Amino acid sequence: MRWSSHLVQLCLCAGVTLAPFAVQAAEDDPWESINRPIFTFNDTVDTYALKPLAQGYQAVTPQFLEDGIHNMFRNIGDVGNLANDLLQAKPRAAGVDTARLLMNTTLGLAGFFDVGTKMGLQRNDEDFGQTLGYWGVGSGPYVMLPLLGPSTLRDAPSKYVDSYTEPYRYMHDVPARNTTMGVDIIDTRASLLSAEKLINGDKYTFIRNAYLQNREFKVKDGKVEDDF
């Protein structure tokens, strides 16, 4: 149920007008007749299962503990950031993420405290889909994945590659693995509750347009001309 994680990307579009981008986004969504029902399914699962769990988690978890847990999962995510920094031949970003991992894992007590950010080491956000885009692979049509949410023909299979930088496939204790994954998902959803306020108009269209625009922004490292 990671589809909601893409709401965090909408935060980056909060100050950006999506209207000029809408025409291009619609052209990139030739499978809308299939994507919309999948989106409705995802939204229903979130509304009646994931969101209530996230609200309950946020209500009973002290803020310092919630922040610490969130930091720990972000620290795990820095492994994937580092791997894709290297695949994109970005030595400076790789150096920053290496330093973050070392500082946060040791001084930050396994990432519970984000020491790296306080030291001026800003976190990068990279994945294998961005790596493919960096090397010239086009995004392809927009795809709505069951439970996983918005993606593209390029980004969808890239999620499998990224899974090798996550700890779950290496955890052989099934209950421990499932519990950790569950907490990760609920923590992510809880951190995005306030982001829902950014959504206006048709929810499907807003998320699609914001996702595609943000992915282009990330692949091009912010060097995107506003020519839509």
Sheet-strand content, in percent, reads: under 5%
Tally of alpha and pi helices: 10
Number of strands: 2
How many whole angstroms does the radius of gyration measure?
A: 18 Å
Task: Output the structural class.
Answer: mainly alpha
Placed side by side, the strands forming the largest sheet appear as: 1-2
- Report the mean per-residue pLDDT as an integer: 89
Distance between the termini: 32 Å
Described by strand count, sense and barrel closure, the largest sheet is: 2 strands, antiparallel
Q: Uncertain spans, ≥5 residues at pLDDT below 50?
A: 1-5, 11-16
Specify the oligomeric state. Answer: single chain
How much helicity do the residues have?
A: 55-70%
Secondary-structure element series: HHHHHHHEEHHH
Shape: globular
Signal peptide: 1-25
Protein name: VacJ family lipoprotein
InterPro entries: MlaA
Pfam families: MlaA (PF04333)
